């Protein structure tokens, strides 16, 4: 049944009783931010002609990880599969106007990442660097002396070496990227449904539909979970366990007298990062990671003591000029944190084959979303991954409790 037809008002009133009317979609995507939008976009690009519903409870995306992210992209991962996902997106960024039209612009600034290590972190930094080089990334590994020559504003105290991405890494405007995809969807016969999914119906090894908080029910051929930090709860609605939970991450903005135009996104061995953002800087990354606890889904209050007590002292040590800075603003968002291995879960459930995951990106999902959208669209349309093989991210490892760990979680 065609959604646009049954929604048509007759004599000024809605003809249908939404509670009892069954509306069927070939694909229902839960979550309309970057991952859900990308899946819908690439489904059409792959020639999928069936009906698609993109269900989103918060069309302003006020609390989506997508719009609260730091919007950075890197090649510096520890596993090849993550590098390949980001490389797909990088290629897209470089041909954005071809894909989305002449005025497509996400403000991509290829400023690089600089990941620093002391003696302890050096073996991992070197191993990661080898993996990245094998994937064709443009990363140089330099000792402390060379780094200070390259970046005179840097203090090498406690630093043995650093890996610097000369090209292929940087930052962009997350909201602009999301809007590009959403705009393209409007021309692509996707039904945007503003509602929260409150239940998923299942018959044996098949999901059959979703229930919405407005009382409606959508029959579904395939259900895709693109619910970001809420993905664990959405999976539970289908009776499926997914170890993904929200983890609060604060981001702080500060002003500094000195402007370092050559500054990459710098990651200190402590995990604290800093990068330029126009005329100011953004910083964060002091949360404990594994020992951390799930966020209250309604808590978006930035953790200012973290800045004062932990982040600022590290910044002042690493970049002495940052001893005198002026913090101005902060925000907090929720990571879509996979407690098993901080890596994405992509693809169908092994038993409930028409329930697909696109979850658990643990802080690097924005840059991976285009690749994941393309991969899942290929899987749905052609039955196999063609461009980027995502089998290693499959749910099977979750069922077996087998970690597929990403070491570079920033
Ligand atoms: C502070 C911070 C910094 C980050 N920095 C980076 C970075 O530099 N680079 C990077 O690549 N990634 C980064 N990330 C991670 C990245 O933002 C996420 O991995 C990515 O945005 C996930 O996209 P998503 O569409 O899956 O989730 P989201 O953007 O959270 O979208 C999920 C959507 O699903 C909707 N939804 C949830 N449940 C339901 C329901 N029951 N019914 C209907 N709708 C529902 C939500 O309203 C939401 O809009 C960062 C994240 C944070 C929080």
From TrEMBL:
The lineage of its organism: Bacteria, Pseudomonadati, Pseudomonadota, Alphaproteobacteria, Hyphomicrobiales. Residues 26-379 form the FAD dependent oxidoreductase domain. It comes from the Bacteria. InterPro entries: FAD-dep_OxRdtase, FAD/NAD-bd_sf. This is FAD-dependent oxidoreductase domain-containing protein 1. Keywords: Oxidoreductase. The keyword Nucleotide-binding does not apply. The gene is FOXRED.
């Amino acid at each position: 049944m065609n959604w646009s037809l049954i929604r048509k008002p007759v004599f000024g009133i809605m003809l249908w009783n939404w509670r009892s009317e069954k509306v069927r979609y070939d694909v229902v995507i839960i979550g309309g931010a970057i991952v859900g939008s990308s899946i819908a976009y690439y489904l059409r690009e792959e020639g999928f002609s069936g009906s698609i519903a993109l269900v989103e409870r918060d069309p302003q995306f006020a609390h989506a990880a997508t719009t609260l992210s730091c919007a950075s992209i890197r090649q510096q991962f520890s596993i090849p599969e993550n590098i390949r996902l980001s490389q797909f997106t990088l290629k897209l960024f470089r041909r954005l106007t071809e894909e989305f039209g002449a005025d497509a612009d996400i403000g991509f600034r290829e400023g690089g990442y600089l990941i620093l290590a002391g003696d302890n972190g050096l073996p991992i930094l070197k191993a990661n660097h080898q993996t990245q080089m094998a994937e064709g990334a443009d990363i140089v590994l330099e000792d402390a002396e060379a780094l200070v020559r390259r970046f005179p504003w840097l203090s090498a105290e406690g630093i043995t070496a650093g890996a610097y991405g000369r090209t292929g890494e940087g930052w962009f405007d997350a909201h602009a990227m999301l809007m590009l995809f959403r705009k393209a969807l409007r021309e692509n016969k996707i039904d945007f449904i503003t509602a929260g999914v409150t239940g998923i119906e299942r018959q044996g090894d098949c999901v059959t539909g979703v229930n919405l908080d407005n009382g409606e029910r959508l029959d579904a051929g395939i259900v895709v979970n693109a619910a970001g930090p809420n993905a664990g709860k959405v999976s539970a609605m289908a009776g499926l366990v997914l170890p993904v939970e929200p983890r609060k991450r604060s981001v702080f903005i500060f002003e500094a007298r000195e402007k370092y135009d050559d500054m990459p996104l710098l990651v200190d061995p402590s995990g604290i990062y800093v990068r330029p953002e126009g005329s100011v800087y953004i910083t964060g990354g002091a949360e404990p990671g594994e020992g951390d606890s799930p966020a209250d889904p309604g808590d978006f209050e930035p953790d200012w003591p973290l800045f004062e007590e932990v982040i600022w002292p590290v910044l002042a040590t690493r970049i002495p000029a940052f001893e005198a800075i002026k913090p101005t603003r902060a925000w907090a968002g929720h990571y879509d944190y996979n407690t098993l291995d901080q890596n994405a879960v992509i693809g169908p459930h092994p038993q409930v084959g028409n329930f697909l995951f696109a979850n658990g990106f643990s802080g690097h999902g924005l840059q991976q979303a285009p690749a994941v959208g393309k991969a899942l669209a290929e899987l749905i349309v052609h039955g196999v991954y063609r461009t980027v093989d995502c089998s290693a991210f499959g749910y099977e490892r979750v069922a077996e409790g087998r970690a597929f760990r990403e070491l570079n979680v920033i």
